[in-house]
Structure formats: structure tokens, C-alpha cells
């Protein structure tokens, strides 16, 4: 019996000794798995933080973009308001200067030069014809209505870019106010209304009427420039070059003369 007990104890001890490495190995694997899980959790946590930071940055960038867009829109609105203000100031100045320089009523049609330029225009701008003979005395003209008619015609061209409507309104102004100090300007802008739509023949007639009936007008240099442009566009190149040279000689140093010189240089290069 004593031997059997000893043998049992020895067997148990041997079994325990044999099982110890396996248990130790199992514990080691468990620890490794735990470490890997902890590492994975740490990586996931870092990745989550990185994603959160990236999302925050995206939100901030989107906010900045919206802010910049709003700023751009504000600046665009301010620029457009400035443009409109500048146009309005120019229009007002244009009318005031025309009145200051036109102290005497437009009686120039009696001059010899007017008869050379007027025939072609009379067919398209009847304002200087029959209506002038039966026109009401200047004293009966309503200055406010005159200004409003001129302003409406100029706004159609400068503000709304409606050249056809502008031409019609300027023709009506010339017909209805034949003694207006604004007639030289009206003829010039009538020509511009035709010019921007490439109706060069009618534009040329309007500019020639201005040059013939109102010599020395503040619009003379610009009218000469556009006269030369129209002639060149109509295939009258030699006449156009002569007109541009005449402009540079009569109005040196003006913006119109500078443009004429530039056009003449371009034409000279084309001849090479």
C-alpha cells in the first residue's frame, strides 16, 4: 500500500512537471494576443484621432472658402457699384460740359461746311430738317424734359448696352430739341450707337454731321477718330488714314490722337 501511494504521488508530480511547459506556452500566447489587441486598439485610436483632425481641418477649410466666396461677392458688388457710379458721373459731366461749351444755340447749319456733310445724314436723322423749321422757340422748351430725353438715350447705350434703342432715342432727341446745346454730343453718341453694331455707313454720317455742323466741339477729336475707323471698316483705307493723320495734327497729345497714331502704326505694319 505504501508503495502504491508513493507511485501515485510520483505519477502526479511527473504529470504536473510535464504539463508546466504547455501551460507556460499557453500563457505566453495569451499575452501575445493581448499585446497585439492593445497595439491594434492603440492604432485604431490614433487613426480615429487623425481622422477627427482631418475632418476638423476640412470643416475649417470649407468655412474659409465660404468666407472668401462671400468676400469675393462683396468685392464684385462694390466694383459694379463703382462702375455704375463712374458711368453716372461721366454722363453728368458729359452733359454739363456740353452745356458750358454750347452757350450759343446750334445755328451752325448755315455754315458752308455743313452743306457738305449734311445730305447723307438728312435721310437718316431728319431732326435737322423739317422739324427745325417749325420748332417751338427755345424759351418754351422744358429743360427738365430735354435733360431727361438726353439722359434716357445715353443710358440706353452706356448703361444697358442697347445700341438700337439708343440710336432711336438720340434721333428723337435731335428731332425734338434742334436748338439744344447738347446736339453735338447727341450726334456723337448717335454715331457710337451705330458704330458698336458695325453699321458703319450710318455711323459715318452721324460723325460727319457733327464735324460739319459743330466745328470745334469738344467731341471733335473723338468724332474724327471714329470717322477714320468707319472709313477703314468700309474699305476706304486711304481716306481713313488721311482722317487719322488730320486728327493727330489738329489735336496732338489727346487720347484720340494717341489711338489714331497706334492705328496708323498697325496699318503701316500690315503694308509690309
UniProtKB/TrEMBL annotation:
<keyword id="KW-0732">Signal</keyword>
<comment type="similarity">
    <text>Belongs to the CpoB family.</text>
</comment>
<dbReference type="InterPro" id="IPR011990">
    <property type="entry name" value="TPR-like_helical_dom_sf"/>
</dbReference>
<dbReference type="InterPro" id="IPR014162">
    <property type="entry name" value="CpoB_C"/>
</dbReference>
<feature type="domain" description="YbgF trimerisation">
    <location>
        <begin position="28"/>
        <end position="106"/>
    </location>
</feature>
<dbReference type="InterPro" id="IPR034706">
    <property type="entry name" value="CpoB"/>
</dbReference>
<dbReference type="Pfam" id="PF13174">
    <property type="entry name" value="TPR_6"/>
</dbReference>
<dbReference type="InterPro" id="IPR019734">
    <property type="entry name" value="TPR_rpt"/>
</dbReference>
<feature type="repeat" description="TPR">
    <location>
        <begin position="184"/>
        <end position="217"/>
    </location>
</feature>
<feature type="region of interest" description="Disordered">
    <location>
        <begin position="104"/>
        <end position="139"/>
    </location>
</feature>
<dbReference type="GO" id="GO:0070206">
    <property type="term" value="P:protein trimerization"/>
</dbReference>
<keyword id="KW-0175">Coiled coil</keyword>
<keyword id="KW-0131">Cell cycle</keyword>
<dbReference type="InterPro" id="IPR032519">
    <property type="entry name" value="YbgF_tri"/>
</dbReference>
<keyword id="KW-0132">Cell division</keyword>
<feature type="signal peptide">
    <location>
        <begin position="1"/>
        <end position="24"/>
    </location>
</feature>
<protein>
    <recommendedName>
        <fullName>Cell division coordinator CpoB</fullName>
    </recommendedName>
</protein>
<dbReference type="Pfam" id="PF16331">
    <property type="entry name" value="TolA_bind_tri"/>
</dbReference>
<keyword id="KW-0574">Periplasm</keyword>
<feature type="coiled-coil region">
    <location>
        <begin position="51"/>
        <end position="92"/>
    </location>
</feature>
<dbReference type="GO" id="GO:0030288">
    <property type="term" value="C:outer membrane-bounded periplasmic space"/>
</dbReference>
<dbReference type="GO" id="GO:0043093">
    <property type="term" value="P:FtsZ-dependent cytokinesis"/>
</dbReference>
<keyword id="KW-0802">TPR repeat</keyword>
<comment type="function">
    <text>Mediates coordination of peptidoglycan synthesis and outer membrane constriction during cell division.</text>
</comment>
Amino acid at each position: 500500500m505504501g508503495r502504491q501511494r508513493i507511485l501515485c504521488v510520483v505519477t502526479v508530480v511527473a504529470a504536473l512537471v510535464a504539463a508546466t511547459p504547455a501551460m507556460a506556452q499557453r500563457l505566453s500566447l495569451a499575452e501575445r494576443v493581448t499585446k497585439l489587441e492593445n497595439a491594434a486598439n492603440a492604432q485604431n485610436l490614433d487613426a480615429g484621432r487623425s481622422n477627427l483632425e482631418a475632418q476638423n481641418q476640412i470643416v475649417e477649410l470649407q468655412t474659409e472658402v465660404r468666407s472668401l466666396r462671400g468676400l469675393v461677392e462683396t468685392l464684385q458688388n462694390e466694383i459694379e457699384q463703382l462702375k455704375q457710379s463712374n458711368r453716372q458721373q461721366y454722363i453728368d459731366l458729359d452733359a454739363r460740359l456740353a452745356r458750358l461749351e454750347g452757350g450759343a444755340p446750334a445755328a451752325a447749319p448755315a455754315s458752308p461746311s455743313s452743306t457738305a456733310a449734311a445730305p447723307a445724314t438728312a435721310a437718316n436723322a431728319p431732326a435737322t430738317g423739317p422739324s427745325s423749321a417749325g420748332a417751338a422757340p427755345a424759351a418754351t422748351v422744358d429743360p427738365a424734359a430735354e435733360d431727361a430725353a438726353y439722359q434716357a438715350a445715353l443710358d440706353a447705350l452706356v448703361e444697358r448696352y442697347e445700341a438700337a434703342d439708343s440710336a432711336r432715342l438720340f434721333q428723337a432727341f435731335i428731332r425734338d430739341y434742334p436748338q439744344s446745346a447738347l446736339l453735338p454730343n447727341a450726334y456723337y453718341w448717335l454715331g457710337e450707337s451705330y458704330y458698336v453694331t458695325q453699321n458703319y455707313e450710318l455711323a459715318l454720317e452721324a460723325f460727319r454731321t457733327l464735324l460739319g455742323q459743330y466745328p470745334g466741339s469738344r467731341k471733335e477729336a473723338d468724332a474724327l477718330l471714329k470717322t477714320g475707323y468707319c472709313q477703314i471698316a468700309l474699305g476706304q483705307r486711304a481716306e481713313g488714314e488721311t482722317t487719322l493723320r488730320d486728327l493727330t495734327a489738329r489735336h496732338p497729345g489727346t487720347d484720340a490722337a494717341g489711338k489714331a497714331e497706334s492705328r496708323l502704326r498697325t496699318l503701316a505694319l500690315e503694308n509690309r
